[in-house]
Amino acid sequence: MNQLAKTDQSQWMITCEGLNKYFGELHVLKDVSIKVKQGEVLCILGPSGSGKSTFIRTLNGIESINSGTITVDQKKLTHKQKDIDAIRKETGMVFQQFNLFPHMTIKQNIMLSPAVVRKWSKVKAEQKAESLLKRVGIYEQANKFPSQLSGGQQQRVAIARALAMEPKVMLFDEPTSALDPEMIKEVLTVIKELAQTGITMLVVTHEMNFAREVADRVVLFDEGCIVEMGTPENLFERPQHERTKLFLSKIL
Ligand code: ADP
Ligand code: MG
């Protein structure tokens, strides 16, 4: 029995129970509960303002919660900085606006966190940065500054930078929403390849084809609540809720 309970727990990389979040009077997350398995790719859909960003930002403590519990890789997220730091080490985050450090080269951007947080030697951090730059296809840009790169290239740097910490979870918040159409594909391709490596990923996206193809499960947020959650096939082909049908009719 104990053994079973332990096995059950360990398959969950993320568990959230009863999350509530307010910005002043505004109730932004309403009793959100969700569990994500190790290696799972979860795509988060929903209209603008439905709480998607706030939700994924609570998972690594960028946003605090008013009530509920969050556990990442068996570590409970509390208000203590030590717990927040421990979870941030394991969760890479990629934002809509790439958020690269403008005064550092591409390679320096990638080396910074492993050197400072993981205390890697310069040589180790540099080797890691170079191998990641090759993986995301921008090795030639290593010594340039972010402003010299296209949006698609900058976002690939941001992905490499998050991966440099060897996180167990990757959180993406609309990673292609700020990109010109011709650059969306190159970034989605990198994210797709990453999904195949078995890392746990949460991706807020409006790219329905991507969600269909890559997600193990999709979840629809609306007004701070989870409306529906299921396999892409079920959610897209056989939505159960009127709200899901309405959302899909507008976006597909
Ligand atoms: P989404 O990512 O789904 O578009 P958000 O999580 O960004 O939604 O926002 C949910 C709601 O919370 C929106 O009404 C938004 O205006 C509000 N909100 C988000 N961040 C803040 C903040 N820092 N202060 C006050 N209100 C916020
Ligand atoms: Mg958002």
TrEMBL record:
The keyword ATP-binding applies. It comes from the Bacteria. Signal peptide: none annotated. Pfam families: ABC_tran. GO terms for molecular function: ATP binding; hydrolase activity. InterPro entries: AAA+_ATPase (IPR003593), ABC_ATPase_HisP-typ (IPR030679), ABC_transporter-like_ATP-bd (IPR003439), ABC_transporter-like_CS (IPR017871), MetN_ABC_transporter-like (IPR050086), P-loop_NTPase (IPR027417). Its EC number is 3.6.3.-. Keywords: ATP-binding, Hydrolase, Nucleotide-binding, Transport. Residues 14-248 form the ABC transporter domain. Belongs to the ABC transporter superfamily. This is General L-amino acid transport system ATP-binding protein.
